[in-house]
């Protein structure tokens, strides 16, 4: 079946300009034109547009575009590896969120077993680079103390906790100035104020997983359609 541009925009729910941009980026199969220069889409094009829109909801734009390009090129194995990598990121993010949340909400009960750390230990614990910790310290988000007996700098449990919070917030919607507003108000005895925020981010992570899985299912079917076309 052939579709006019107007019909395609109504089905896909985007503008003519958007459809044309996808075509110009070679994200869909080649389009046929009438003698008068009018585009005519077929079922495979509608499927491609719908697939791309679903991918854009579940993945970042470069990833969605790359997956569509690989489908056109028939590089299905490469596409599968990209999908696997993106799914792994979600799993790793979920594990990191849960570890941070458990630690923060359990504090200060952990204060008896979490001891002061040197910068390398803290970087490993918070899963960040030492350069990031130095930068945050330069920006007065965290602070260290120097042990006069050996000259080393250490971070006390409270600063360890703040570092974990900062490393987490940097992965969400906060910039450094917004982070400062959060960490300045953190008290030794109360981290429960972050519970709602953590729960929301964890829920968003789960929604992102569901969205990705839906997009992947549609993408796999699209790839089958391309092979059969």
From TrEMBL:
Specify the protein name.
MerR family transcriptional regulator
SUPFAM superfamilies with a match to the protein in the record: Putative DNA-binding domain
What UniProt keywords apply to this chain's record, in alphabetical order? DNA-binding
User: Where does the HTH merR-type domain lie?
Assistant: 2-43, 116-185
Q: What Pfam families has UniProt attached to this entry?
A: MerR_1
